[in-house]
Design goal:
Elements lengths: L5 E3 L6 H4 L20 E8 L8 E5 L5 E6 L3 E5 L8 E11 L4 E16 L4 E10 L8 E6 L2 E10 L16 E10 L9 E5 L9 E9 L5
Length: 220
Amino acid sequence: MSRSRVLFLCGAAIAAICGPVLPAHAAAPGITVPPDKIVIEVATVNGSGCPAGSAAVGVSLDNTAFTVTYSKYLAQVGLGAKPTDFRKNCQLNLIVHVPHGFTYAVASVDYRGYAQLEPGATGEQKASYYFQGQSQTTAKSHQFKGALDDNWQATDTNEIAQYVWAPCGERRNFNINTELTVNAGTSDPTKTTSFMAMDSTDTAINTLYRLAWKECPPKR
C-alpha cells in the first residue's frame, strides 16, 4: 500500500469501511475538544507487521482518541519461525484533518496484545511518534520476560509540558513507528516457540491513542 490514501471518516454510514466507531472518552481537565468531527486519512502503511489491508483506524465519537487495530502483527522465534520473524515493525503515516482553529497532540497511548514467551525468552514493544518536518521523538520501549502466556499491555504517557503539538494552520502528516521484538534468550528455539502479537480477530485488542486539544491563537 504505497499511497493508498484510504479515507477513514468514521460515521454510521460507512462504519464497515473505517472499522469501529469508538465510544466517547473523558477529556482531560482543561482540555478544549473541537466540536467538529476529525477525519483521518491513511497516507501510507509500511512494515512487516502491517502488510496491506491488515491495519484499520477508528475515531472516537468525541474526538478525544483514535485506535489502530492490526490483524497480522506478530513477532516470533523458534519452531516454525523464519530467521527474520523475531522482529516486526509498522510505520503509519496519517493525515489528520483538524477542525479550523484547533491543534492536537498525543497525550498517551495504550498498546495491547498477546504474548507467549517461554522461560528465558524476552519480548520488547517500542514506539516513536513525530509530525512531518519535526524531529522524531525518542523511542519508548517496554520489556517482557518469560515465562508468560497472557494478554499484555503497555502505556506511553507524556507530561503536558512534553506534548508535541501539530503546527497551527498547517497540515503536517503524523507518523507512528512501532516495533515488536522477541528473543529466544536462554530458551531452546529448536524445541519451543515464543511470540508476541499486537493483533486481534476483533476490536477488543487495539492500540488506543488519546488526544489533547487546544485552540490556536488568532492570526494577526
